[in-house]
């Protein structure tokens, strides 16, 4: 694409290099920000260098992407590696790209991919494709019984190959890789396993799967233009807040509850107003008795009736008590409304803070273990990195390999779910996006540790690489790849399950949420029952005593 723009004088080589340089810096800053570094403002008066410069440089060295000048990648010394230059040739139609010079010292020649050269390209009747089972890329159909050939499989990879077949008019046969591996090199023998090994041994023409493009694999095979971007990040179980029986008291602080208990005594002010003292026997003039309804128990009853929004049959008569009653009614209105509004949130929203928010925080603690798929691309990233934090984590995972390294992403996902927040799993963000759409108790924590892509693997100097790359670019430009991902990530195979359940934080209320209210009800009922029996006992004793006194008086009269 860059060479076509050069030929049409759309922009110069310097412009393409500047664009890729700015994009490299932007990617590194994005990764740095994703790990939530705290960056202090730079002072012009301070002569000290920026403390995060080395870290930013390391992120830039780790960054790999396809830019306007091709593959942008750096070696350990910081120099650009895997450089390739396009070779121009003069044809009947003018100047055209006829090959490529590679940094490794060889020249790759190819014809421009057009329908005219299709018979020359597809010398074999079929393209043999290998893939690996991994949802949602390559899966066996649930109703695959009785089906044969390609019809047994489904997934993003199948749809991608179908689109490529439509674009390039080829046929294919696809089969799962025999050893169920993506592709890694044995350090002792130097041999490759998985899909990479099958392509190298000519057991398959191409490999289409979530196969990560990295420098080690590119030494053995070639990759097309990436059809999906991804990066390493962390899968973790969403923490939940442990609710107590007294959760209904959470909307107000302890201090506020004490203030409300103390404010009840102010209602007792009605006892001091002379206008609240009334004559209970107005018809008698010989013995006037003044009484006040606002004695201690009635005052508290009046106050509690206001709080409970039930009112009271004790009506204030004096202006002072009416004022305090009105203010108390306004106070309880606001307090009860605020309590009711917050109570629903406290009883149903059980979001809890995460124990870590970045890979640095995860590495700094010891309560939560972490792991990944052994001998995969993510594992090799940690082994080969120059960043001290990642090296420390790689050493930890090697020391505890038996417990933290898993054989597949699905086993790692199950380990995260069953660990109850004691295990985190490193995997690629594309797969995490798929998992979190279906497992609502799982989530991604932190940003991306790197930036890379999935590509189609071919043999070195394969004639399939260039036409497939151009077809992938066309599918990207037309939005087909984006639509395929949306279909398999958010629609098919259980996609959108978490959205259909509504907000995950809103849960059913159980006894653990409101158990304290029941305890208060039971406690109050038991206390009132004992109090009723006590009152009955006291009243019985009183009546018995009165009857005894009356009998004694009668006996005395009879004796006299």
From TrEMBL:
Subcellular location: Postsynaptic cell membrane
MF-aspect GO terms: ligand-gated monoatomic ion channel activity
Domain Ionotropic glutamate receptor L-glutamate and glycine-binding stretches: 136-201
Cross-referenced SUPFAM superfamilies: Periplasmic binding protein-like I, Periplasmic binding protein-like II
InterPro entries for the chain: ANF_lig-bd_rcpt, Glu/Gly-bd, Ionotropic_Glu_rcpt, Iontro_rcpt_C, Peripla_BP_I
Residue stretches making up the Ionotropic glutamate receptor C-terminal domain: 126-491
Residues spanning the membrane: 245-269, 323-347, 514-537
Pfam families per UniProt: ANF_receptor, Lig_chan, Lig_chan-Glu_bd
Keywords: Cell membrane, Glycoprotein, Ion channel, Ion transport, Ligand-gated ion channel, Membrane, Postsynaptic cell membrane, Receptor, Synapse, Transmembrane, Transmembrane helix, Transport
Membrane topology note: Multi-pass membrane protein
Record-level GO cellular component terms: postsynaptic membrane
Similarity field: Belongs to the glutamate-gated ion channel (TC 1.A.10.1) family.
Name of this protein: Uncharacterized protein
Lineage: Eukaryota, Metazoa, Ecdysozoa, Arthropoda, Chelicerata
